[in-house]
Each structure stands twice: as structure tokens, then as C-alpha cells.
């Protein structure tokens, strides 16, 4: 499928998806969301792909929602497209973005510039977030008379802690990449010229692992990450562990260890 607002290409066993509206700092639109979902689903359906990297073209990652194409149209009584009024957090009606990211193959966000508003909330469910030293982050919803979306009030608390998430959301100020790293919101800060290489390196590392276990582990992290009932947490883990014991991937890993060779999972 050809896209208008994103690019998608295979880099070995990783799909690289690039937000591609550089003249508008990759401002988000419902069309972009639909195209992102299609590209992610295509990667998920390709057995040769083991992970996904999401980045932006030009000097921005995603400068939030396009004001004229989304908010202004909605205020004027127009549908910005894709029936976002019926969807979750302004997403197209039939797109559960958070569920898609959490059930997807491992996703690495490579934030090359400003990531504010939905530019930030859409990547918080990703498995790993890397940022250029030039990146900026902001939960600017309070500044435009809105509240956060896409379960970001959950993911921010998980990543940063309650107090830090509260300050970020209630102030609406911008955070540097270094500050976001220090506060625990992102996993790594790298030089701009190294960002994509390091993100792909992380993704290739994920992709080298067995696909069923990657999916199971993501599911456990999603369901158990903020759970408090330890018996139920262990039940979920044990249930999947018993499944793993019967898989060819587990057998291959054990055999490879005994034969002193790298395992082959795809």
C-alpha cells in the first residue's frame, strides 16, 4: 500500500516507519493514524519482520495534532476524517491505538525532534523510547484546554511516577531529552546522527528473539505491570510458561545451548 503521510520500509528483520509531513513537523492527522495502523498491521503479519521502529522525517518527530486539520475543523462542526468523534482519544473510530501497540511486535520509538501532545502520547505504549539530544517532550493538553488521551495518564505514571507525571501534565511545559531520561520517561538519549542506527540496533536485538515469546512477554507486561494481586500475576506467568515448554522455539533454544551455537528462530 502507498501512503500519503508516512513511509514504511524493511530494514532486514525490522520495519522502519517514518512520519512524513516534515513541512509541518509531522503534525498528526486522522489520515496519518490510519496509515500508521495499516503499516504496523502489515509488519505484524509479515513473518520475516520481528520488530518495528517509529521515527519522524525532518527536524521534528510529531508536533501534536494538526490544529487546522483537526481541532479547527471539529470546532467548525466538520469531521476531521475517519470519524474521530466516535473513537478513543481522537483516533479513528475503529482504531484502538493502545491495544494495537501493546499487541504488536516490539516497537521502538526513535524521537528525532519535538514530540508533544499526541506526538508523545502515541509513543508512550511503545516498548522502548530512544531520543536525540535535540528532542523535546511536552504534555501540552492543558495549554489548549484539553486533557491527555491514549491512556497516557496511565503510562506516564508507570514510566515516571505519580508526582513527576502530575507535574508534567499540569504544567504543560516542555522537557529536554536529558530531563525526560533523568525522570524515567525514556530509555536512552543519543547523538542525533546516531539515533536511527541505535534504534535499529535495539529493534534487531528484539527481532532476534522468538516471536511467540515476545508476544507473550508483552502481554504479561501489559496485564501485570500495574496489577497488585500477586497470585493472579503468577497464574498468568505460569500459564504461559507451560505453553512455552511445548514450543519448537524453546526446544531450539535448549538444543542450540547444548550444541554451543546461536539459536535460529526464523
Helix and strand topology:
Blueprint: E1 6-11, E2 14-19, H1 30-44, E3 51-56, H2 67-75, H3 97-103, E4 107-111, E5 114-116, H4 118-121, E6 128-132, E7 136-138, H5 152-160, H6 162-171, E8 174-176, H7 177-182, E9 188-190, H8 195-207, H9 211-224, H10 230-245, H11 248-258
Parallel strand pairs: 2-3, 3-4, 4-6, 5-7, 6-9
Antiparallel strand pairs: 1-2, 7-8
Helix pairs in contact: 5-6, 9-10
Notes on the structure:
This protein is an alpha/beta fold and 266 residues long. It has two domains: 6-207, 2-enoyl-CoA Hydratase, Chain A, domain 1; 211-258. It is built from eleven helices and nine strands. A six-stranded mixed beta sheet has the order 1-2-3-4-6-9, sandwiched between helices. Helix 1 (30-44) links the parallel strand 2 and strand 3. Helix 5 (152-160) crosses helix 6 and helix 9 runs antiparallel to helix 10 (230-245). The two termini are 25 Å apart.
